[in-house]
Design a protein that fits this description.
The chain has 17 helices and twelve strands. It is an alpha/beta fold. Among the domains are: 132 residues, Leucine Dehydrogenase, chain A, domain 1 (Rossmann fold, 3-Layer(aba) Sandwich), CATH 3.40.50; 166 residues, NAD(P)-binding Rossmann-like Domain (Rossmann fold), CATH 3.40.50. The protein is globular.
């Protein structure tokens, strides 16, 4: 490994020794930059790597709220404003018990590079809380969101920092957050949050954007590798949230056969093809478990999760789309997928595949669509929502979808061109890291030591 990269990574491990997810994210990006650093010795003199992995600002705060039984509950809130090099901080809010400083920093770091790939003027940030909305009443979620925003509003603004949704933060949560922000600020700043409802400033196609974008990227990747197509391919998708549902929808529209989806308890395998309307009803309306799919589709098979890895990776498939959470696809699952003949992996979640698993997949000729490129459709459409809010004007669904498709194509070719420039062939994982890093480093040098 390049000595400069090794020095910086060792420093990160020492300074942030308890932040394993953040260390992993930095290692994954910087590990791909060796040919770039070798060709640009000026980057070491400018301390580009050191500056790029240190957030501009990290905010942690107390979130007190009262549950339906009158109990006072205390959660912890976070916002990391990682980089404003190319625009206001932009990134989602995650409400999940696993949220901690390491998770938020890793997500914020990834967001910086992802946003740079979109070609849009947005910086990178991330936030959230260890609050779990599952099992909470609407009133409890509302009270929590109002308390959370009472502190967060000090640090955000439509030209400063624009949060959106992520795991545990959907249309309901964004609505409560926006209402509290508007109440405190006494002003209608439509562009301060994205993922809003259509009745108060949201964008058509925003709900579908991350899942659709993943499939648009996958389609380009297959087309550029043996002129393959999604049509007729078997697909498995981990997760059953927003990203997974709309990746399934678009894959089915393009002729793929999606046979499995999952949640944290297990997975559904339907050899005849997933009935997406049933999944949508269970997850978007009833907020139920994926096992409930059997109530209306009794010929499907439910496989209970018994270990760290989802059983979905044991199902034979052409294309696997990890769309649930970080590090869900480990080395053992990667070996199983390769053994069963998988040809491509598309990362719909943030850092869902371990570094060891990615290396194994690439070594065995599997195409990998990396998260910071392949799941950038959500934030790209959020930026389109911001633009619409600024213009006081709305695009049609078809207009937004077409812009999304163009952005995802451009992202793919940015990754492809960067990989080929440095002799890495079709390693789009490295290509994504290199393309975004070069854009960010140029902006960092131009703006001086700030």
């Amino acid at each position: 490994m390049n000595k400069y990269i090794e020095k910086v990574l060792n420093n990160v491990k020492i300074k942030d020794e308890h932040e394993k997810e953040f260390i992993q994210a930095v290692g994954e990006v910087y590990g791909a930059l060796e040919p770039v650093i070798e060709n640009h010795p000026e980057f070491e003199k400018q301390a580009i790597l050191e500056r790029m992995c240190e957030p501009e600002r990290l905010i942690s705060f107390r979130v007190p709220w009262i549950d339906d039984n009158g109990n006072i509950i205390i959660n912890r809130g976070y916002r990391v404003q990682f980089s404003s090099l190319i625009g206001p901080y932009k990134g989602g809010l995650r409400f999940h018990p696993s949220v901690n400083q390491s998770i938020i920093k890793f997500l914020g770091f990834e967001q910086v590079f992802k946003n740079a790939l979109t070609g849009l003027p947005i910086g990178g940030g991330k936030g959230g809380s260890d609050f779990d909305p599952k099992g909470k009443s609407d009133n409890e979620v509302m009270r929590f969101c109002q308390s959370f925003m009472t502190e967060l509003q000090r640090h955000i603004g439509q030209d400063v920092d624009v949060p959106a949704g992520d795991i545990g933060v959907g249309a309901r949560e964004v609505g409560y957050l926006f209402g509290q922000y508007k109440r405190i600020k006494d002003a209608y700043e439509g562009g301060v949050l994205t993922g809003k409802g259509l009745s108060y400033g949201g964008s058509l196609a925003r709900t579908e954007a991350t899942g659709y974008g993943l499939i648009y990227f996958m389609r380009e990747m297959l087309k550029n590798n043996g002129s393959q197509s999604l049509h007729g391919k078997t697909v498995t998708i981990s997760g059953s949230g927003n990203v997974a549902i709309y990746a399934c929808e678009k894959a089915q529209q393009l002729g793929a056969k999606v046979v499995a989806m999952s949640d944290s308890n297990g997975c559904i395998y339907d050899k005849d093809g997933i009935d997406l309307a049933t999944i949508k009803r269970i997850k978007e309306v009833e907020r139920g478990r994926i096992k409930d799919y059997l109530h209306t589709n009794p010929f499907a098979e439910y496989i209970e999760r018994t270990g760290d890895a989802s059983p979905i990776w044991n199902i034979k498939t052409d294309i696997a789309l990890p769309c649930a959470t970080q590090n869900e696809l480990n080395i053992e699952s990667a070996k199983t997928l390769v053994k069963n003949g998988v040809i491509a992996i598309g990362e719909g979640a943030n850092m869902p595949t371990s570094m060891e698993a990615i290396e194994y997949l690439l070594e065995h000729g599997v195409l990998v669509a990396p998260a910071k490129a392949a799941n950038a459709g959500g934030v790209a459409t959020s930026a389109i929502e911001m633009s619409q809010n600024s213009m006081r004007f709305y695009y049609t669904f078809e207009e937004v979808d077409k812009k999304l498709e163009t952005i995802m194509k451009n992202i793919f070719y940015s990754c492809k061109d960067a990989a080929e420039k440095y002799g890495l062939k079709n390693n789009y994982v490295a290509g994504a890291n290199i393309a975004s890093f070069l854009k960010l480093s140029e902006a960092m040098i131009a703006q001086g030591v700030v």
